[in-house]
Amino acid sequence: MTTLFEKPQDRPLADRLRPTSLDEVVGQNHLLADDAPLGRMMKTGKVSSFILWGPPGCGKTTIAKLFANVAGLYYEPLSAVFSGVADLRRVFDSAKARRQMGKQTLLFVDEIHRFNRSQQDSFLPYVEDGTVILVGATTENPSFELNSALLSRCKVFVLKPLERDSLEKILERAEKEYGHKLPLTDEARTYLFSLPDGDGRYFINLIEAIEQYDSEDILTTEHIAKIISQRMPLYDKDREGHYNLISALHKSLRGSDPDAGLYWLARMLQGGEDAKYILRRLARFSVEDVGLADPNAVTQAIAAWNTYERLGSPEGDLAIAQLVVYLATAPKSVGVYKAWSAAQKTAKETGSLSPPMHILNAPTKLMGQLGYGEGYQYDPDTEDGFSGQEYFPSQMHHCTFYRPPQRGFEREINKRLDYWNNLRKQKKCLK
């Protein structure tokens, strides 16, 4: 709203470009179209509570406010960052009084994930009895950040980061507002669209900064670089982005794609991820996904870790990059991983069985008399270096947990296992 002494052009551009109807909201047609979830909700008048989940600057606040207008609801905004129990109580009391007068309240809670569990629980009775229509906005995965009880009472709508066509519409509206095109070279204009990372709010602020830049020249990419510090990637190492990117790195390596692996590594390091966390995950990858297909993988992982600890960033980053390429191009095997899982399962099922008597030590005379260690053969001292004795409990059959694939170094391991299995059969026949 413009005051008596304020000119429209004095207002921030973001305020001047704020949509006045849902038709003007860009990039979220999958939710707002007539046949889309929110479009249908408004069309039918059957309004219910929902959560808007999406990155910064994609229109969550704007959608909530315009939705309230269309639905004829009183719009009550609340920020979880600046509000506490007293604020919630005040809001709920006001909503109750408003309802008695025949007016329903849309309670918009920005960054709802910042409320703790007990605060989230306080919403439940008011949502259930219809005192408020709750619209929560969050940049974080609701599955992790919101109570299951609250989630079960709210639909979750996923908003998308703004793509190039949506950003072009915003720029067109801004230039119409200014009455002229921004003085940009074609290259600079293209560069401009690469900066926001899907954030419309940031894009509008960037347009405003360019418009206010004091220059009579047509602006180049170098000019834009001087106007702004390039936006840091959307990444929070305590939040969903952290898990998404480490998953992307892990799966790229598993799929033997070193280029994608390097890309996701760069994204994580540029986002401020702890390099030691990445190295810990890569060490795990070396034994979990590469395994004995390349026994040197774990050696490389530890070497890269040690190198990074000695050098730090940025020099040590190259050691991590080298490890990523090594692991991506290594043969993959989950032979040991599967064997270990099977052994754990069997051990849990048969945990009370004793080892066979011949492999038990006999440190006392009595134990010797009872047969402890009787008949044990010292394998390295046998003719073949292999006795073929049984080492499982006598109540069990010999189990095969480890079944290595015919890949990488495990081809050689298969040869050894076949040799010992054949030798074991021969020795049993001789007995």
SSE topology:
Blueprint (H helix, E strand, L loop, with lengths): L12 H4 L12 H4 L4 H8 L5 E4 L6 H12 L2 E6 L5 H16 L4 E6 L6 H5 L2 H5 L3 E7 L3 H4 L2 H4 L3 E4 L5 H15 L7 H8 L6 H12 L9 H7 L12 H15 L3 H13 L4 H16 L5 H16 L5 H13 L5 H15 L15 H5 L40 H21 L1
Parallel strand pairs: 1-4, 1-5, 2-3, 3-4
Helix pairs in contact: 10-12, 14-15, 15-18, 16-17, 16-18, 17-18
Summarize the structure.
The protein is of the alpha/beta class.
Structure commentary:
Helix 14 packs antiparallel against helix 15 (258-270) and helix 17 packs antiparallel against helix 18. This protein has 431 residues and is of the alpha/beta class. Helix content is 51%, strand content 6%. Strands 2-3-4-1-5 form a five-stranded parallel beta sheet, with helices on both faces. The chain folds into four domains: 28-158, P-loop containing nucleotide triphosphate hydrolases (Rossmann fold); 164-227; 240-329, Zinc Finger, Delta Prime, domain 3; 353-430, no CATH class. The termini are far apart. The longest helix has 21 residues, at 410-430. The protein contains 21 helices and five strands.
From the structure above, extract its key features.
single chain; 431 residues; alpha/beta; Zinc Finger, Delta Prime, domain 3; 4 domains; five-stranded parallel beta sheet; 21 helices
First-residue to last-residue Cα separation: 98 Å
CATH homology superfamily of the largest domain: P-loop containing nucleotide triphosphate hydrolases
Q: Helical proportion?
A: 40-55%
Strand order of the largest sheet: 2-3-4-1-5
Biggest sheet overview: 5 strands, parallel
Overall, the morphology is elongated
